[in-house]
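testing teh design pipeline on a random one, pls ignore if ur not involved
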């Protein structure tokens, strides 16, 4: 095969052994790579009901056929596992030189199995694979770990690491890669910590073999140029995702006070313009000329890379309006290796619980020092931090009262930074996201705002499925960043051409969407198999707060989601996906997308 390396590197940490598995073209043609490979491996190999933090769970790092090629934004890697936060399928998309190096070392996928006997790090250098003692590095922040390993193995080494939160099994700990990139919101860092793996160092020296290297070069040159020439490019380079603060504020979607409101009175103090004034540098993933990482100095003078999600969740959502202080909290999250979205949610939840006197803990909106201390307590699982380290959904089971009404999650994964009081389509995107409440599979909000904001329409359901096919399907499987398309209007038609030049295989966009549907159905089957009789369509509902509490300010004052209409839209979504009224894929659908082998297991799990 060209384009794909055709090899999976497996490490059994319990036995201290590695082996290389060659896979055949049917895996590549049916699942493409990245998320497709990850869910196929987890479906085929995990025992039903496996404890996510046990040695039996597997942690998969999967590249796509475009990962690591000199093409725009191709340095992306999927990190996936059964999630300790949600109990379902979990993954994240991380920009990293480790992605490029893994492909150059000759592999498309790395699978970690078992558990190392002592804290370890993995050294992968082409065919040489070693499990080494990491006791000297255990307890270091992610940044310290990366610096140490860069000193030891050189600046070119691809590095993936966890911070202290991963070591302490915080349920929303992430994997951090060099340059402040973080991935795997549903606790992929905790799975790595449970395997006793502090870091993975990857160095490869092979050329990734492609079908038409000359053709690929021509396409790449054109593509990089087209990004540079796009009208939005200069502004994007100035603000990146931070421009979204102003947009969300204008459109009443900025999460404020634990998603009570969609506007924040002090939004200007935390927006992209304020960030521009503080900006001292720019960072990016491999082979990217968009470089969306904005570097600022935080309130202690250290460097931090605030993105929209980080600032909204650790700013307006917790009532904090000092951007440099927010940047400091963001740096702490990166250093400890904690997902900022879940973190901003659990902190907002804790402040609200304190306000309602459901917990005996003194913390208020915008209380920077209190929040800073709480983040440390979460990372090290101290006091209240130990409970919050379990995530909002689990915390409601201890805190009780009416806390389930304002615990902002779907299926256990905390909501990303878009309020949905007036966004039924976005609420459905969260409800049906394959990993719990994340925007990555279908950020329909922009389209919704510019078309039919309040509508619960069939067109909206169709748009949502289209976005899930492109974002959650095609991009997550190809192994490239979606931002050139999302932010700068880069044409989707370029991707089948890249794929043809890389692999020699001709696939239309429609073929790629069909793979996306296969992947989506297999992920859904995974959830249902794991949840068994606990599965219910209400798991596809957004949090009750948006149905029961109106906005009290902003352009949509008084607005609320309508549960009856949401249910109608959800049923329409199921129908279009070929799922039954409980959201379970029908036999005919599974056959249509080539997942016949799933049927028996699904029936057994759901009916038992
Ligand atoms: C992603 C989620 C996001 S989505 C953000 S900001 W965003 C937060 N970033 C965090 C961070 O930083 N540090 C931290 N400790 N926690 C963080 N949690 C949050 O994680 C990310 C970019 C972004 S920035 C986005 S939207 C796009 N996402 C892509 C995607 O999902 N797929 C794809 N093919 N391309 C994408 N391009 C963009 O990549 P998760 P990254 Mg991330 C520091 O990982 O788990 O998916 O959560 O990967 O390399 O940081 O790039 O406004
Ligand atoms: Fe990474 Fe941003 Fe470039 Fe995407 S646009 S590859 S997230 S730097």
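output:
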């Amino acid at each position: 095969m060209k384009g794909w390396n055709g090899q999976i590197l497996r490490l059994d940490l319990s036995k201290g052994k590695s082996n290389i598995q060659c896979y055949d073209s049917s895996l590549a043609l049916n699942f493409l790579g990245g998320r497709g490979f990850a869910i196929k491996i987890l479906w085929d190999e995990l025992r039903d009901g496996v404890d996510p933090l046990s040695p039996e769970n597997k942690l998969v790092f999967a590249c796509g056929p475009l990962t690591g090629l000199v093409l725009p934004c191709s340095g992306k890697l999927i990190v996936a596992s059964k999630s300790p936060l949600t109990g379902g399928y979990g993954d994240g998309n991380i920009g990293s030189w480790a992605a490029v190096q893994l492909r150059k070392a000759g592999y498309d996928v790395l699978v970690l199995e078992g558990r190392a006997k002592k804290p370890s790090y993995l050294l992968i250098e082409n065919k040489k694979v070693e499990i080494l003692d990491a006791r000297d590095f255990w307890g270091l922040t992610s940044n310290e770990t990366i610096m140490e390993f860069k000193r030891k193995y050189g600046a070119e080494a691809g590095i993936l690491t966890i911070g202290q939160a991963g070591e302490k099994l915080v349920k929303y700990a992430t994997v951090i890669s060099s340059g402040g990139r973080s991935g795997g919101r549903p606790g992929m860092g905790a799975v790595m910590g449970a395997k006793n793996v502090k870091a993975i160092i990857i160095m490869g020296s092979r050329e990734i073999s492609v079908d038409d290297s000359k053709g690929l070069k021509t396409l790449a040159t054109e593509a990089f140029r087209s990004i540079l020439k796009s009208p939005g490019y200069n502004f994007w380079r100035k603000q990146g995702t931070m421009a979204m603060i102003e947009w969300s504020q204008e459109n009443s979607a900025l999460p404020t006070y634990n998603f009570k409101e969609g506007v924040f009175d002090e939004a200007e103090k935390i927006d992209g313009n304020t960030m521009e004034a503080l900006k001292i540098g720019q960072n990016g993933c491999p082979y990217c000329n968009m470089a969306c990482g904005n570097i600022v100095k935080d309130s202690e003078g250290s460097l931090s890379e605030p993105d929209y999600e980080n600032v909204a969740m650790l700013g307006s959502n917790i009532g904090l309006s000092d951007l440099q202080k927010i940047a400091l909290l963001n740096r702490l999250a990166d250093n400890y290796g904690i997902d900022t979205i879940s973190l901003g949610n659990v902190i907002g939840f804790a402040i609200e619980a304190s306000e309602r006197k459901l917990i005996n803990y003194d913390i208020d909106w915008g209380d920077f020092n209190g929040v800073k201390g709480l983040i440390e307590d979460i990372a090290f699982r101290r006091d209240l931090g130990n409970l919050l380290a379990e995530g909002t959904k689990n915390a409601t089971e201890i805190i009780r009262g009416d806390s389930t009404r304002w615990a902002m999650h779907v299926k256990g994964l905390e909501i990303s930074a878009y309020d949905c009081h007036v966004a039924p389509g976005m609420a459905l995107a969260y409800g049906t996201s394959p990993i719990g409440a994340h925007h990555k599979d279908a950020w329909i909000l922009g389209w919704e705002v510019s078309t039919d904001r309040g509508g619960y329409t069939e067109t909206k359901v169709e748009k949502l499925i289209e976005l899930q096919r492109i974002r959650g399907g095609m991009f997550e499987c190809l192994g490239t960043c979606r931002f050139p398309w999302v932010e700068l209007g880069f044409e989707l038609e370029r991707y089948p051409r890249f794929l043809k030049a890389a692999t020699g295989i001709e696939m239309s966009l429609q073929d790629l969407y069909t793979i996306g549907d296969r992947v989506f159905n297999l992920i859904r089957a995974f959830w249902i198999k794991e949840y068994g009789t606990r599965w219910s369509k209400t798991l596809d509902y957004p949090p009750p707060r948006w149905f029961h509490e109106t906005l009290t300010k902003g352009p949509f004052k008084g607005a609320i989601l309508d549960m009856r209409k949401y249910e109608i839209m959800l049923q329409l979504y199921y129908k279009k996906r070929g799922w039954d009224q409980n959201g379970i894929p029908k036999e005919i659908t599974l056959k249509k997308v080539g997942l016949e082998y799933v049927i028996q297991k699904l029936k057994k799990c759901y009916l038992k």
